[in-house]
Amino acid sequence: MNADSFETVVVETDLLILGGGMAACGAAYEASHWAKKHNQRVTLVDKAAMERSGAVAMGLSAINLYLGLKDGRNSVDDYVQYVKNDLMGIARDDLVANIARHVDSSVHLFEKWGLPIWKDEDGRYVNEGRWQIMIHGEAYKNIVSEAAKMALKELGEHGSYYERIFITEPVMVDDRCVGAVGFSVRENKFYLFKAKAVLDTMGGAVHIFRPRSVGEGLGRSWYPPFNSGASAYFTLKAGAEMTCQEVRFVPVRFKDSYGPVGAWFLLFKSKATNAKGEDYMETRAAELENWAPYGTARPTPANLRNYLMLKEIEEGNGPIYMRTDEAIREMVAQIPDEKEARRKMKELESEAWEDFLDMTVSQALNWASHNIMPEETPSEISACEPYFISSHSGASGAWISGPEDLAPDAHFWGYGNMTTVKGLFAAGDASGASSHKFSSGSFTEGRIAAKAAVAFCVDHPDPVHVSGEQVAALKEQVLKPLRIFDAHKDYSNDQEVNPHYIKPKMFMFRLQKIMDEYAGGASVGFRTSGALLEKGLEYLQYMKEDAEKLAAGDLNELMRCWENTHRLWQAESHIRTIRFREETRWPGYYFRTDHPAMKAEWEAFANCRWDPASGEWKMIKREIL
Ligand code: SFD
Ligand code: AMP
User: Which domain holds residue 545?
Assistant: First the structure.
C-alpha cells in the first residue's frame, strides 16, 4: 500500500470528542446543548461504529451505578465511602462525588430513550446490589449512541461524527492540545482535526498482558479487544500528568468465556467455593485483617475477594466454583407453594441465561456446549488477566481538575475534567482516581467534561493554527509503518518474517510476554518485585526501539501497529508506577513480593508524567486530600 496515495483531510471544529463509547455519547449529548447556546461546533471521532463500539458493544445486563437519590435510599457520601474502600483508600472524593450526584439523571435519560429497566410490582427499579440495577441491556449501546448522534445532528452543520477513524496522536502547539490526527481504517485518508478543546474518551486497554486464551481462543478476553490504550497514550504524549497507572483491574469471571459474576453474587446471593465446597470468604476471613481498615470493612474490596480465591488456587484447592445450583435451590426452597416454586424456578433459569445473553453471549454458548444447566451444575470461575479500566475497579488515567465547588484548591485548575495540559480534557476510562463509574457514570462524566470543555472553547475564541510542516511531519509519522513494509517486504520469502521490520502481531506477543512474566501477569500468579520490574522495563526499552520498525501491509495492520504503540506506553507507565509504589496495596490485582504489605506512607496517589521536551519520566507522589 502506497503511503503517498493518502489524501489529507482537515476538519476544523471547536470541541473535539475522541472515542464513541459511553463517555463520548454523554459528552456529545451534553455538548450539543451548550454548543447550541454558545454557537460552538462539536465533532466526535470513533475508531469503530458507535452503535456497537467500546466496552458496551455486546450490551450489559446491569447498570452498576445508580444511587436512587430521589427515594433517599443512598447518599453521595455513602457512595464515596464505598468507592474509597473498594480501592483501598486511593480515590479522589471530589471526582467520585461529582459523578455520583449527577448519575441518576443519566439513567433516567436512558430509560426515556427506550432502555428497558427491570421493575418490581410497585414499578420500582429492581436492584441487583445496593448500587446496581438490572436492565434488559442487549441494545444498550445502540440506544445510547442513537441519542448521541441525534444530539449532534440537531446542531446542523455545527455537529458531526466520524466513524472508523483511528486516532493516533495529539496535536500540540505551545503546550496546548489543539487537535488530533488519525487515519481512516477503510480509505486512504489521513485526518487532521483542529479544535479549541479536545476531550479524550478512548476507553481503557486490553491485551497488554498475555491473555489466558492463547492459540485456541486468541483474542478472547473480558475487556473488549477494540480498546488498546489510546486514551493513556494520548494524554501521556501530550505531557499530561497521569494517576494510578499501577491500578489495573483483574476481574473474576466465569472461566474461559468471561461471563459476569455480579448478578450471581448480588442478585442470586450465590457463593463461590473451592473444590471441596468451602466458602473461602468465610474460611479465610482472618486474612482480611492484615488489610485493615479496608479489608475488614464491608463489602470486602474486589481485589481482596480475588486474593482469597487466588490463595485457594495456590494451595491446590481448585477448581473454584460459582455454586449456581445451590443459589437457585435456596431461592426456590423459600417458596412453600409447589406450583409457585416451579414458576419461580423457570423464572430464575431464564434470568440466569439472560444475564449472559445480554452481555456475554459466548458464555451462554459455553454453558450450552458443556451441558451446563445452572440450576443443576456449578460453574468454574477464574481470575482474568489484568486490564486497564478505571471506570470499573481499576483506577488508571489522567489526573484531572475536579469541580470547583467540591475540589480542594490543589485539585481545581480552572475547568472541571481538564488534564494538566491546557485544552485537553478526559472522562470515562481516560480519567483516573475515580473508579466505579461504570457505564452510567462514564456517560455522566462525559457530560460533565463536555460542559466544561465547551466553556473552555467559549473562553478561548481565537482560531488555532497548526503549521504545514507540523502536519506533514505527523502524517509521515502515522504512515511510517506502510513505508517500512513497502521498502523491505521483498527481502524475505515470507512477509511475516523479515530482519528489517516487525509485524504488529509479533510485537504484541512480545509485549504480552514481558508484561506477563515481569509485571505480574496471570501466569505468575500476579506476583512481581522491584528486580523483575527493573528487568521488564529494560526489555520495554528495546521494544520502544523496535516500535520504530513496526510494519504494516494494509490499513488494518496500520491500525494494529498503532494499537501496539499505544499499548507499549500504557505498559511502560504501569511498570514505572508499580515500581514507584513500594508496597502491596491491592494484593488480588498484583503482589510485590519484596514489599508484601500495605504501608502508611503510601496512603497516597502515585502519579507520573512523561515530559515531551526532555523525553524523561517523572514520578510524583501526591497527598490524598
Ligand atoms: O458488570 C477509539 N462495564 C459495566 N458497566 C455497567 O454499568 N454495567 C455492567 O454490567 C458492566 N459490565 C461490564 C463493563 C465493562 C466491560 C468491558 C464488560 C462488562 C465486559 C463498564 C462499562 O462498560 C464502562 O465503564 C464504560 O463503557 C466506559 O466508558 P468509556 O467511554 O470510557 O469507554 P468505552 O465505552 O469502552 O468507549 C471507548 C471508545 O473509544 C473508541 N476508541 N476511537 C478513536 N481512536 C482510537 N484510537 C480509539 N480507541 C478506542 C472505541 O471505539 C469506543 O467507542 S460488568 O460485567 O462489569
Ligand atoms: P461484576 O459482574 O463483577 O462486574 O460486578 C458487577 C457489580 O457488582 C460491580 O459493581 C461489582 O463491584 C459488584 N460486585 C460483584 N461481586 C460482588 C461481591 N461479591 N460483593 C460485592 N459487590 C460485588
Answer: 470-608
Last residue of a domain, one of 367, 383, 399: 383
Contact in structure between 53 and 202 (CB atoms under 8 Å): no
By C-alpha distance, which of 199, 230, 231 is closest to 13? Answer: 199
Per the DSSP assignment, residues forming a β-bridge with 333 are none
In a domain, 98, yes or no: no
Q: Residues 485, 581: one domain?
A: yes
Kindly report the protein residue whose alpha carbon is nearest to atom 6 of ligand 2.
Answer: 262
Cβ count near 33 (within 10 Å) = 16
Q: What angle do CA 238, 243, 246 make, to 5 degrees?
A: 115
299 lines ligand 2 (CB under 6 A): yes
> 161 has which bridge partners?
44
Report pLDDT for 498: 96
Specify the number of domains making up the chain. 2
The DSSP result for 453-496, as a single string, is HHHHHHH--SPP---HHHHHHHHHHHHHHHHHHHHHTTSSSSTT
pLDDT bin (cut points 50, 70, 90) of residue 216 is confident
| Three-point CA angle 573, 254, 326, nearest 5° | 140
Peptide bond into 299 cis (omega under 30): yes
Express each pLDDT in 97-132 by its tens digit: 999 999 999 999 999 999 999 999 999 999 999 999
Q: How many Cβ atoms sit within 10 Å of the Cβ of residue 531?
A: 11
Quote helix, strand, coil % in the chain, to nearest 5: 45, 15, 40
What residue ranges in 390-493 does DSSP mark as E strands?
A: 397-398, 424-426
Q: What's the CATH number where 347 sits?
A: 3.90.700.10
Q: For residue 8, what are the β-bridge partners?
A: 190
In ligand 2, the atom with minimum distance to the C-alpha of 393 is 12
266 lines ligand 2 (CB under 6 A): yes
Please check whether residue 147 lies inside any domain of the structure: no
Q: Which residues line ligand 1 (CB under 6 A)?
A: 18-24, 45-48, 53-56, 60-64, 166-167, 201-203, 222-224, 226-227, 230, 260, 262, 359, 391-392, 428-429, 438-440, 442
CB of 130 closer than 6 A to ligand 2? no
- Kindly state whether residues 371 and 478 are assigned to the same domain: no
